[in-house]
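sry for the spam today, last one i promise. struct tokens for design, 515 residues
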């Protein structure tokens, strides 16, 4: 120990050559620090080969610039250690380079690196054989700051039932193997992620609810994010649900300098909000996000897969209740260079997504969609794994909404960079929807908007540009659609005269000579 409260791992015979095993030396430094009522374990520059380590309360592990703790390439150097709290993740999160469980006031800081040596863990099975870099279970008062984490053998970092956590200014690079999420926040409370850089093959920023309590009071801000799968995601595990979540000021782009192991080279989605195992998703606000290059910028899914805390999938489904999504706002989102799939907001029959708002959102796609995709049936897939591409190419190139009520689209712009022979917006089984200030660009002759099996829909202040008609209604079930104060001078108002029976119209601007 060189200074009071500072424990240098080299004083405990850690050798910085990347070849000598330093597990015992580093653990001895941690334990000595804890026995002295806390302090800092100092990791000086150099590479230290290590197996599993356990942190202690009131201990800060500080990695200096140029310092690397390199995970062992042998899984047997990471003993199996299931969480003391029963969770679905105990099926596969059993080994880790660093473990913290039931601790208070613990930190990992510095400008150094935790490297999981993940290229040695290529087995695709989810059987707990591949180690994470960091697992924190039921910890309170956590700081993870400044460090780089890279090349994990499984998820990079998993926080389960933790409170008062701050993750600040870290960099994650995870492309060594399968299932390498950048950060998983699971049934936690009072959790702040800020000023981080995440680049991963699998999901990047992922909130989960694998227990019977929600992931809540989570703030994520000022991050740059890339993923071959989903950049920002809630789910897939969602039995506990998500409440009081605020995500803001983030930039999402397709990964550069890596090829997909899972997912797509360009990335599957920018924002995916998924609730498929029960629970509730409430009071979620996502704002000031740029998204470039991913296949699907926005995906919201309420489903009934039914996985959860149960021992088997069959028991999960038998005891499963469908959850709900309500009071979600996505605002000030600019998405460009999206793929051909289309964005979607989709519930299941009898279970609507409720009171979701898109405000000041731009969706600009590459275009090139086919007319046949407009007529293709979209499967319900209510019990399937949720993914933004799960329905195939959607009937709209911009936004497809089904089984939703209280939907509000304000100042939404939908454009395609090349001709796309699908509508920009499709409503299917939508009730009490308000669309204000919609701007669409449709070079072809298809309608800009199509409505099916919906009622109590109001369009105001819309400015469609291009060709075709603004609106198509194809069924007798659709009723009480209002068109008030829209600018239809460049397009026809509706596709067929017979559709007027479902409409109420007032104060719209129409082309000269229109009836």
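last one done:
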């Amino acid at each position: 120990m060189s200074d009071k409260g500072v424990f240098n791992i080299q004083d405990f015979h850690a050798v910085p050559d990347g070849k000598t095993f330093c597990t015992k030396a580093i653990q001895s430094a941690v334990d000595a620090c804890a026995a002295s009522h806390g302090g800092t374990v100092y990791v000086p520059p150099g590479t230290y080969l290590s197996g599993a380590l356990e942190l202690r309360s009131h201990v800060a592990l500080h990695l200096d610039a140029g310092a690397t703790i390199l995970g062992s390439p042998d899984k047997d150097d990471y003993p199996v250690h299931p969480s003391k709290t029963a969770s679905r993740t105990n099926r596969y999160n059993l080994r880790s380079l660093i473990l913290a469980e039931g601790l208070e006031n613990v930190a990992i800081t510095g400008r150094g690196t935790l490297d999981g040596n993940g290229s040695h863990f290529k087995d695709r099975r989810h059987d707990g054989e591949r180690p994470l870099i960091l697992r924190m279970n039921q910890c309170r008062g956590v700081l993870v700051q400044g460090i780089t984490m890279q090349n994990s053998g499984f998820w990079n970092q998993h926080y389960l039932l933790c409170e008062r956590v701050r993750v600040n200014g870290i960099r994650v690079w995870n492309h060594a193997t399968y299932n390498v999420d950048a950060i998983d926040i699971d049934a936690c409370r009072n959790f702040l992620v800020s000023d981080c850089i995440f680049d991963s093959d699998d999901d990047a920023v992922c909130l989960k609810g694998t227990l019977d309590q929600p992931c809540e009071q989570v703030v994520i801000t000022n991050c740059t994010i890339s993923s071959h799968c989903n950049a920002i995601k809630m789910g897939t595990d969602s039995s506990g649900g998500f409440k009081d979540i605020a995500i803001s000021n983030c930039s999402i782009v397709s990964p550069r300098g890596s090829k997909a192991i899972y997912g797509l080279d360009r990335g599957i989605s920018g924002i995916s909000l998924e609730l498929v195992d029960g629970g509730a998703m409430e009071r979620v606000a996502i704002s000031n996000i740029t998204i470039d290059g991913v296949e699907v910028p926005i995906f919201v899914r309420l489903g009934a897969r039914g996985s959860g805390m149960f021992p088997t999938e069959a028991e999960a489904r038998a005891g499963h209740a469908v959850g709900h999504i309500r009071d979600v706002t996505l605002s000030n989102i600019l998405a460009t260079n999206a793929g051909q799939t289309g964005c979607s907001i989709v519930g299941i029959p009898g279970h609507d997504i409720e009171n979701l708002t898109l405000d000041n959102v731009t969706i600009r796609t590459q275009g090139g969609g086919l007319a046949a995709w407009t007529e293709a049936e979209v499967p319900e897939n209510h019990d399937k794994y949720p993914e933004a591409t799960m329905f195939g190419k959607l009937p709209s190139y911009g936004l497809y909404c089904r089984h939703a009520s209280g939907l509000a689209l304000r100042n939404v712009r939908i454009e395609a960079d090349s001709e796309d022979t699908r509508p920009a917006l499709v409503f299917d089984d939508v009730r009490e929807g308000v669309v204000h200030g919609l701007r669409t660009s449709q070079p072809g002759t298809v309608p800009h908007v199509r409505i099916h099996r919906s009622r109590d829909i109001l369009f105001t202040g819309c400015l469609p540009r291009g060709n075709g008609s603004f609106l198509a209604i194809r069924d007798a079930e659709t009723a009480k659609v209002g068109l008030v104060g829209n600018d239809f001078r460049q397009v026809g108002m509706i596709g067929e005269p017979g559709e007027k029976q479902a409409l109420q119209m007032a104060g719209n601007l129409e082309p000269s000579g229109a009836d």
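The radius of gyration is 25 Å. ok im logging off now
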